[in-house]
Amino acid sequence: MASRTTARIYRGTPRNLRRLANALRAGELVAVPTETVYGLAANVWDFRACANVFEAKGRPSTDPLIVHIRLLGELHEVAVANDAALALARAFWPGPLTLILPKRATVPDIATAGLPSVAVRMPAHPLFRRLLKAADVPLAAPSANRFGYISPTTALHVQEGLGQHIRYILDGGSAAIGLESTIVDLRNPRQPRVLRPGAISAAQISAVLKRPVRTKHGQPSAASAAAQVSPGQMLRHYSPRTPLTLHSSLTLEAARRAPHEAWIFLRTPAGLRKGDANIRSFSRRGTLEEVAHRLFAILREVDAGRWRAIHAELPLPDAGDLAAAIRDRLHRAAAR
């Protein structure tokens, strides 16, 4: 594992990419930018490197990692692909979609929580893709934060959370989407299930597969202590340290009556004053895409403000799959 020094942030120069690729092949960990959130990457073929990911994050071994590949042909190196998986890969990769499939025996059990399945995706972030090409190995990578805390969407977020546990951070700017990938279980291709909502909707997946897709939309239920088929299934996850309460709607009047608590509106409210220091918003324009992009960054900002409590406004439950993904993250963040 790395020495107890603050991780260095590297720009994506050709020289730095070669250096970080060499580090990955040698079993080091590298925090990487993706279009969803920042990940903590390790050579998937290296058992010790994968074990170090769990150690650095404080992540339970029952929570599997997602394997990241660059080319469609690499899917067959880590998973047993079926026609449904190939159809979704051609439609949405590179992009924020993770597939759960039977794993190849060569994938270390530690990366899959000991299960015979593996989570795989092909990221779209151009800098991460250049690193994957330079490293020339699939990379296992969960979110680059201490387990259970708010996901990181910038290199600085990673440095603040994991700076004493890793050595290398590749800076690819702010994550474009801001929410983790959609995860679809295709172990039985005749019964596809969305296990974690994200930017790619169940309707889009259903349209490609030409069959209904089951979802787990709604308030999350408690996960067991057994190995999880998919990441992101824990009841409490993405959580600030400050107690978080969720509301179907917020008012300026309520926020002003509790000036020692933070209030986060979905959209910047009309009538906001300069003196409303305890009021934030996930979105300036009111779009769900902007809410998703800013969600974790705003939660981190407010959590650092030493407020007594945080109140956050939920999108409407019938506002579509992106709203469902945002509600999923907020419900897990607020779970006790």
Structure in words:
- This is Threonylcarbamoyl-AMP synthase.
- It is found in: Cytoplasm.
- Residues 14-200 form the YrdC-like domain.
- There is one protein chain.
- With 336 residues, this protein is of the alpha/beta class.
- It folds into 2 domains: 8-215, DHBP synthase; 244-334, no CATH class.
- 29% of the residues lie in helices and 18% in strands.
- The protein contains 10 helices and 15 strands.
- Strands 1-8-2-3-7-4-6-5-9-10-11 form an 11-stranded mixed β-sheet, sandwiched between helices. A 4-stranded parallel β-sheet has the order 12-15-13-14.
- The chain is globular.
- The model has no long low-confidence stretch (mean pLDDT 94).
Keywords:
nucleotide-binding; T(6)A37_SUA5; 15 strands; 11-stranded mixed sheet; alpha/beta; cytoplasm; 10 helices; transferase; 2 domains; 4-stranded parallel sheet; ATP-binding; about 325 residues
Topology:
Blueprint: E1 8-10, H1 14-25, E2 30-32, E3 39-43, H2 47-57, E4 66-68, H3 75-78, H4 83-92, E5 97-102, E6 117-121, H5 126-135, E7 139-140, H6 155-162, E8 168-170, E9 182-185, E10 193-196, H7 202-209, E11 214-215, E12 244-247, H8 252-257, E13 262-267, E14 279-283, H9 288-303, E15 310-313, H10 321-334
Parallel strand pairs: 1-8, 2-8, 4-6, 5-9, 10-11, 12-15, 13-14, 13-15
Antiparallel strand pairs: 2-3, 3-7, 4-7, 5-6, 9-10
EC number: 2.7.7.87
Function: Required for the formation of a threonylcarbamoyl group on adenosine at position 37 (t(6)A37) in tRNAs that read codons beginning with adenine.
Catalytic activity: L-threonine + hydrogencarbonate + ATP = L-threonylcarbamoyladenylate + diphosphate + H2O
